[in-house]
Amino acid sequence: MSTRTETESEPAKHRAARAGATGAGTLPTAPCSVVWSKGHAYVLEGFRARWVGVDDRGRPQALTGDELQRRGWSRTRAH
Fold first, then answer.
1. What are the DSSP calls for 26-71, one per residue?
2. What three-state secondary structure class fits 6?
Protein backbone atom coordinates (compact mmCIF):
# COMPACT_ATOMS: atom_id res chain seq x y z
CA MET A 1 0.00 0.00 0.00
CA SER A 2 1.37 3.42 -0.84
CA THR A 3 1.66 6.29 1.61
CA ARG A 4 -0.40 8.45 -0.71
CA THR A 5 -3.41 6.12 -0.54
CA GLU A 6 -3.28 6.07 3.25
CA THR A 7 -3.16 9.86 3.58
CA GLU A 8 -6.00 10.33 1.10
CA SER A 9 -8.29 8.01 3.08
CA GLU A 10 -7.61 9.73 6.43
CA PRO A 11 -9.57 12.93 5.69
CA ALA A 12 -12.59 10.85 4.65
CA LYS A 13 -12.44 8.94 7.95
CA HIS A 14 -12.29 12.18 9.92
CA ARG A 15 -15.21 13.70 7.99
CA ALA A 16 -17.32 10.60 8.72
CA ALA A 17 -16.40 10.72 12.40
CA ARG A 18 -17.25 14.43 12.66
CA ALA A 19 -20.59 13.95 10.88
CA GLY A 20 -21.65 11.28 13.37
CA ALA A 21 -20.32 13.04 16.43
CA THR A 22 -22.13 16.26 15.66
CA GLY A 23 -25.39 14.52 14.87
CA ALA A 24 -25.33 15.81 11.28
CA GLY A 25 -25.17 12.25 9.97
CA THR A 26 -27.88 9.66 10.29
CA LEU A 27 -27.41 6.46 12.23
CA PRO A 28 -26.89 3.31 10.15
CA THR A 29 -29.98 1.15 9.70
CA ALA A 30 -28.46 -2.22 8.73
CA PRO A 31 -28.69 -4.87 11.45
CA CYS A 32 -25.36 -5.48 13.23
CA SER A 33 -24.07 -1.99 12.36
CA VAL A 34 -21.54 -0.68 14.88
CA VAL A 35 -21.15 2.91 16.11
CA TRP A 36 -19.17 4.44 18.97
CA SER A 37 -20.42 6.71 21.72
CA LYS A 38 -18.42 7.97 24.71
CA GLY A 39 -15.70 5.36 24.08
CA HIS A 40 -18.07 2.38 23.86
CA ALA A 41 -19.22 0.34 20.87
CA TYR A 42 -22.95 -0.09 20.24
CA VAL A 43 -24.43 -2.67 17.87
CA LEU A 44 -27.83 -2.29 16.20
CA GLU A 45 -30.20 -5.13 16.98
CA GLY A 46 -32.36 -5.20 13.88
CA PHE A 47 -35.33 -7.07 15.29
CA ARG A 48 -35.76 -4.60 18.18
CA ALA A 49 -34.36 -1.44 16.54
CA ARG A 50 -32.22 -0.64 19.54
CA TRP A 51 -28.50 -0.09 20.05
CA VAL A 52 -26.87 -2.46 22.53
CA GLY A 53 -23.55 -1.97 24.30
CA VAL A 54 -22.11 -1.66 27.79
CA ASP A 55 -21.76 1.25 30.22
CA ASP A 56 -18.56 2.34 31.99
CA ARG A 57 -18.91 -0.50 34.48
CA GLY A 58 -19.44 -3.20 31.85
CA ARG A 59 -23.18 -3.53 32.45
CA PRO A 60 -25.42 -4.13 29.42
CA GLN A 61 -27.06 -0.98 28.09
CA ALA A 62 -29.70 -0.57 25.37
CA LEU A 63 -30.34 2.79 23.73
CA THR A 64 -32.87 3.99 21.19
CA GLY A 65 -31.67 5.82 18.10
CA ASP A 66 -32.85 9.11 19.60
CA GLU A 67 -30.89 8.51 22.81
CA LEU A 68 -27.77 7.71 20.82
CA GLN A 69 -28.20 10.88 18.74
CA ARG A 70 -28.41 12.98 21.93
CA ARG A 71 -25.29 11.34 23.42
CA GLY A 72 -23.28 11.86 20.22
CA TRP A 73 -21.82 9.07 18.13
CA SER A 74 -19.31 8.29 15.41
CA ARG A 75 -18.49 5.45 13.04
CA THR A 76 -14.98 5.21 14.46
CA ARG A 77 -13.65 4.95 17.97
CA ALA A 78 -11.71 8.21 17.67
CA HIS A 79 -13.38 11.08 19.55
1. PPP-STT-EEEETTEEEEEETTTTEEEEE-TTS-EEEE-HHHHHHH
2. helix
* pLDDT, tens digit (0-9, with 9 covering 90-100), for 9-34: 444 444 444 444 444 589 999 989 99
Q: What is the pLDDT of residues 28-45, one digit of tens each?
A: 999 899 999 999 999 999
Provide CB contacts within 8 A for 60, sequence distance 6+: 52, 53, 54
The span from the CA of 20 to the CA of 27, in Å, is 8
Mark 1-29 as b/e (b = at least 16 C-beta within 10 Å).
eeeeeeeeeeeeeeeebeebbeeebebbe
Interatomic CA distance for residues 51 and 44, integer angstroms:
4
